Amino acid sequence: MEHIITTASTYEEQLADAVELLQASQKITVLTGAGISTESGIPDFRSPGSPWQKQPPVTFHAFLNQAEARRRYWETRRTLLPAVKQARPNAAHRALAELERQGRLLGLITQNFDGLHQDAGNSPERIVELHGTSREATCIICDTRTSIEDVQRRVDAGEAEPRCSLCGGYLKAATILFGQRIPDDVLTRAKELSIRCDLFLVVGSSLKVTPASHLPRLALQAHIPLIIINVEPTRLDQQADVTLHEKAGTVLPRLIALL
Ligand SMILES: [Zn+2]
């Protein structure tokens, strides 16, 4: 496919090209990042002004080795809970659920762990949560999943470092911390979805974080067309067939309505 020189075309032309590509596709793989959830009130921790700029996030290494880091982990989590609990899917999430209802969605890979794609109506079996989920708790040793609400209640009741009732390992949310490996099966599935689709659509990701940023590259190597929807430019804009620097909640519903 001939790649369009994005700088030379207007926004409306890009929009028309996106509709054409989407209409021609039946097996779309979508990669979503923090940008889709900021419109639901979930902070993007990598943006200026985020809570992480005042206090860097607890790394997996620190969580494993330092009681103070585990305490800080649970404290930070408590301060973020109100925003997370209030968050509802926005128009962009709903548009991606509509894409699935239309039978065009092969898979939905997300860097977010907020569960909003499931809330919007996408089937859990089509979703790959690269960075895990904050809606469950997990044991760092035996990986047994438990209720995050129960664990949070134990923390709130004064248990500084809740442990697994089966093996005694530390419990944490089932998200991937900095320095923690993404499980092989999760990454393998994401890579397969990236090369088996007939269109790769990036929504709300600046493509700065690996391995998520590699996935659209895999698609490009497989000669799969690429659409990028992100407020800020990304490193792959020049290689994408279409780039739309716009809020996902504005442009995605518009695109899907035109299919
Ligand atoms: Zn355990």
UniProtKB/TrEMBL annotation:
Gene Ontology MF terms: histone deacetylase activity, NAD-dependent; metal ion binding; NAD+ binding
Keyword Zinc belongs to the record:
yes
Q: Summarize where Zn(2+) binds, as residue positions.
A: C139, C142, C164, C167
Query: Which keywords accompany this UniProt record?
Result: Metal-binding, NAD, Transferase, Zinc
Q: What InterPro entries has UniProt attached to this entry?
A: DHS-like_NAD/FAD-binding_dom, NAD-dep_sirtuin_deacylases, Sirtuin, Sirtuin_cat_small_dom_sf, Ssirtuin_cat_dom
EC numbers listed for it are 2.3.1.286
SUPFAM superfamilies membership: DHS-like NAD/FAD-binding domain
Which residues act catalytically here?
H131 (proton acceptor)
Q: Which residues form the Deacetylase sirtuin-type domain?
A: 8-259
Q: Does the keyword Zinc apply?
A: yes
Name of one Pfam family that matches: SIR2
Per its UniProt entry, what is the enzyme's top EC class, as one word? Answer: transferase
Q: Which PROSITE patterns match?
A: SIRTUIN
Q: What is this protein called?
A: protein acetyllysine N-acetyltransferase
Q: Which organism is it from?
A: Thermosporothrix hazakensis
The record lists the lineage as: Bacteria, Bacillati, Chloroflexota, Ktedonobacteria, Ktedonobacterales
